[in-house]
Protein 1
Amino acid sequence: MTDLATMLRARIVAHGPLGLDSWMAACNSHYYASRDPFGPAGDFTTAPEISQMFGELIGAWVADLWTRAGRPPCRLVELGPGRGTLIADAWRVCSRTPGFAEKVALHLVETSHTLRAGQAARIAAAWHDSLDDIPHDRPLIVIANEFLDALPIRQFLGAGHERAIGLEGDDFVASTIPSGFCDKGEACEPATALAAALAKRLQTGGGAALFIDYGYTGSPALDSLQAVRHHARADPFADPGAADLTAHVDFTAFAGAASGVRVAGPVAQGVWLTRLGIEPRAAALKAGATPRDAARIEAALIRLTAPAAMGALFKVIALTAADWPAPAGFDA
Ligand code: SAH
């Protein structure tokens, strides 16, 4: 019995079933604070852990946008950097752009102190608990991969009820609590709040934001919650804080909350990476590689771009201030 399970049981006994968003927030905060979950030996593998090409192309996207914006003093922000692989690969590319390293300050928003330590071993930055803590004095360029999917969701079940987690004896079980909403479907309130807050900041201070995640457009999903442990599906209510809890990102809701900025996409990750030049980058890396490494690079290229792999489920969306240039990769 973990301390988290004990604490959650006490909370449910005292106050009744716990809303799914509170459950997901408590579980994920414990989960990320207590381990490095990435890669084959962990629970799941993200795009930057598959290949350096992913972070490099994001770096090229940032450097291109910053250059076309007139090379202003700026703050580059990554939300939820995980192992720091994406930002290390991106920064290597960005810092080759004349003036970038001098004019752009790096900020990482990360709540897990365990993961912060790993990030600090890879790159120099300023760390923050929230985007709000980053100074408002300069334009922001924000990047985030698989960040929104980890934010807590609510599941409205119709007829004035929403998903909650209750107790049967010592076991956590799916339950419901009353809610003020009659519609059915999921809502990720921290994601829409972030889109709104970010849009306001970009509108007043300038800049852009890039989000890559798995998700959909259209009407809200009914039940996209999933728990992943050791690269397999797990029960999201069985062992709190032991599995990664995620939900598909509702890009329609996210874009709808970003008022006063231009929204580009979402486009499929495979399409976006191809437009940014992942194929020539893979060819260049393969040219100097051993046959074994060349095969690994080719496999990574396919995994990141093929519609049957990550290429279609994962999508890319960008928000830009009205007076900033259009971001690369969104127009054919
Ligand atoms: N971007 C990385 C990691 C994705 S996992 C990659 O692609 O590999 C989600 C990341 O977001 C982790 O670093 C986790 O600790 C962080 N995170 C989750 N919820 C957060 C929150 N509310 N605020 C800040 N960071 C959060």
Protein 2
Amino acid sequence: MPTTVRSFGKINLGLCIGARRKDGYHELRTIYQTVGLHDRVRVQVERGRGIRIRCEVAGVPQDDSNTCYQAAERLLAALGIKRRVTIEIEKRLPVQGGLGGASSNAVATMQALQHELKRELPLPERMRIAAEIGSDLPLFLIGGTVLGVSRGEEVYPLDDGPSFQCVIATPRIGISTPKAFADWDRTQRQRKLTARDASDRINWFSSAALLWLNGYLPRRLGLTGRSSSGVPVDFGGGRAENPLLELVRTGIANDFERVVFPQHPELRELKRTLQREGANYASLSGSGSAVYGLFGSRPAAVRAARKLAAEGTLAEATRTVTRREYWKHL
Ligand code: C5P
């Protein structure tokens, strides 16, 4: 019996690009959030050798450049096992869409393959393999709300708050992430911004994320107290407001919007539509082209998704997926 797993997408709640490093990657800070939109990955193991990829969607490679192929190959090697592996990908997440589809598929492959083989590679080893294949893979070994640092591959689980309604619009535009980074570098040079400026921005983003953790966590735990200056601090006690909303109120944004929106004004327009339709926060995800909005209620999210669909944009009302749900429904 083959093993089928859900391969959830992610959105980025803010993404700050720092300086280009000596290894060619950019220093990065972001908060990843897994969402309900997902592909399905089916893994079958038989006697023999070789890895086969099956996917009917154009643009998904079927050779060893496929992230699922690489994940399966490395997992088998690390476990010292030789088998014939067939990986079928049922795609709903857009290709080059900023929702981490290829990365998520690769991690889903590892999880399904482990299940098929009835063998498990320790998490740190799976993390290492994931990070070698791509910067956006390790987050999918954690799920829920995840802080990403370094080139995005160094991941830290954040508090697993309640789920949030969201609308994800997936225009049929593929955006190359390396090109988006190169465009970012060009704009930084044109504005004569230095590595020092880049590091200041990175630090600001980290502070905003920390401020959120400091404010939200005590509230969630129902704590009130006094600041070091003796001023009473009321964290609200009792029920906390939605943590994601508090997080986006810190003013975090996605730097890729500054290079992607000028080249694709229709994506900026999509963000505006989501805001007009009542999104509490709207943003490009990763380097795009997906644009999402966070909503206060399911009916509001469904209304906004319908409005976008009526305008001819693929859009779906879904929810953010907490870590607990992620592992329960994988
Ligand atoms: O790690 P991944 O293979 O997903 O990265 C794809 C490309 O995106 C890299 O080759 C690099 O050009 C760019 N990148 C970057 N800085 C990052 C992540 C990716 O410049 N932090």
Protein 3
Amino acid sequence: MGDEIKYWQKLEKISREILENFACQEIRTPIIEETGLFERGIGGETQVVKKEMYTFLDKGGDSVTMRPEGTAGVVRAYIEHSFNQQQEVSKLWYMGPMFRYERPQKGRLRQFHQIGVEVFGVDSPYADAEVVTIVDRIAKGVGVEGYDVFINSLGTFDERKPYQLKLREYFAMHSNDLCIDCQGRLQKNVLRIFDCKNPTCGEIGDEAPLLLDFLSEASRRDFEIFQNMLTLAGVSYTVNPRIVRGLDYYEKNTFEFVSDKLGSQSAFAGGGRYNHLVEELGGRATPGVGFGLGCERLIMLMRECAPLATEGRSGVFVAPLSESAMLKSREILQKLRDHGLRAESPFAVKSLKSQMRQADKGNYRYVAMLGEDELARDCVMLKDLSEGTQQEIACSEILRQF
Ligand code: HAM
């Protein structure tokens, strides 16, 4: 409604151009998939899988889920269609609706849209940096600025194990002060405590040991190259060791794009590396990295940083003023459209006043009026709504005016 659609069109157009520029291929996957895909892919202990999925039994009694995110479905398609046999590295992008049963609030919807990229077949910080650069270029491309790019390394799953033990020890010392949910997370997935919005849990988390101190040489090196490449691409970033991401598949380099103009739902994009997901979902071991960008949130920022100017008048409204002028009006209308002009005409004769109102509302520049008089002389009365002038034009000359 209103100008909302213009923002979507701008975001989609610019994103497509940039994704093309980065040599990504579009992929379209189903909205509904088998529930197990998301449980295995995203992780049974995550908030998304435990509380937020739209899951139901279909008529055949199978459990299906409306996708809460794009990565799992793209991985499933990548495996099913043996992309690895056709290309060494696949860079795939998608755009579409996602569904999460969350408590709706500003910037948090139950149906929202993501633009995302998944890069398969390479475990390289150069690819990680490229993925972050795409988000940065899309955001800048639509005129958004003043955001933070937070980056972190989560290490590999193996590196995370001793860290998780340390973390569990630390949080166990404070368990009486943790909220009920975090007391559960302590046993099941201690990293998730960092996601908790409870201020006391946040304060305790602030003093917790840092994963960055537990990284191997290789992960450290990857994190360093990642940073150097971001600098090279002109992406200003901040290392933020508290970025743990809400989904279980991440390893090594991860990131979030955050803006304080968005209120509490401040992240407009996020992603990172996932080297075990393809294998986890039944494919051959293949590394991956990607991002998901929340369109609604980026559009909120576009409205603030780069509001669209109201468009000027354009095109021609053809106004038949009598029943007998209908045929000729339709003929002129078709000629104008075939000439590439935006043109409209009512399907039934209406009063001149009501047609002028319609032309004005439709933001037309010209109105071509056609009554008995004009019909007899094979001409139209052409009114320029911007200039406030009008002149008679022969029907055969009408295309020359535009
Ligand atoms: P995510 O961080 O869960 O990651 O979501 C990515 C973005 O989607 C968020 O930063 C946010 O802008 C938007 N978003 C998420 N939930 C909502 C909601 N309820 N309402 C509005 N916007 C929302 C993923 O989904 C991963 N699949 C990203 C990824 C791709 N990682 C690797 N590849």
Protein 4
Amino acid sequence: MVTRAQTDRLRKASLEVLLKNRRVTDGHQYTVPSPSTYPYQWLWDSCFHATVLAQFDIGDAKKEIRSLLTHQFDDGMLPHMIYWQPGDFVTIPWGKERTSSITQPPLVAQVVWELYLRDRDIAFLKELYTALYRFYSYLLRERDPRRNHLVGIINPDESGEDNSPRFDAPLGLSHEQTLPENFGRRLMLVAQLQSCNFDAAYCMKQYFWVKDVPFNSFLAKNLEYLAKIAEEVGLADEARGFRAEREHLVVAMRSRMLEDGIFWSTNGADYSKIKVKTWAIFAPLFAGILTEGEASALVERHLLNASEFKTPFMVPTVSKDEPSFDPRGMWRGPVWMSTNWFLYRGLIDYGMHDVAEDLLESSVAMLERAGFREFFDPETGEGLGAHDFTWGALIVDMLVYAGEASARTRGASRSAAS
Ligand code: GLC
């Protein structure tokens, strides 16, 4: 049981870190993930921030999303980093001055929809719809040029899990590697992508062509939210179109990625499965694309398995029985609060409340012990990586999500009954 006092302390600490990391440039308000290590605006980070800010001040949550959408590319892509301040140092040659040239997981439709559920501000939905339409259309068009219904990422950083061992083979790296080696190889990839002008359809075939399970799972879930938004602003045809895209995507994930109960990311034109067990195998839970039987088998066999993902502090990003597992290595074993948040929501949505409660308690224990660090050792709970890192604030959403989910279900069954 998480106590009232713990909840109060964590809400207070979460708001503090979000306020400390808040920046305003030219009237645009946004939050940097960590002042010393990550002093820019990032795409999926801002989606996390807005989700949490909605609990404190919905106006601030909307500002976070508005600033995020200011640097959309002509083709609809949302860049994964925005360098707001003139003094922001850019060490990566993206070929752009103010942004990167790649994207990050497409969570923004879901956040916008959840903000809308709080205040029913239809003007906000109407204001943002075109930008959302253009972003998701970009992904469906440019990241799936052959219309096979799975979208590709062109760089590991687009997954948000920059150094994950899922990407070792596609990058031509062995599992035994140092952080500088991995970074060097990813910088080389940026140079390669520059040589093909970051034109995804073309670059994918040459340099890096991964269909990632979390990215596609997030997209599936977000197409559903985008459809709801389209409906709400009176565009029923577009809503139908996005629902159909979601259906195709889920069918394609099942046919190309699923084997023996696990969805695997794929590499290359022939969709060879990348059989490295990372937390990504649980992303379909968050997206709601598993049957109840599949979901409980996945959780029993892997999440609760002491030689895989069951550790004193849950949930490691890589299974303990993987040769690449490193409890202190960036995206190669430690616990991240983002992945815990995805998993927690998935478990609650599937009604697995006991497992979800353990995950919540473990997350609370880590934060109380180590503070708002970037990631945590799954064996000891020790905090690692950046300081004053905002993702710990996702605990605020986890603390209310189960209650809000059951209120939603009650609301849904009431309206079904009426
Ligand atoms: C690291 C993470 C990425 C995150 C960024 C800012 O690069 O891998 O997911 O968006 O930091 O927090």
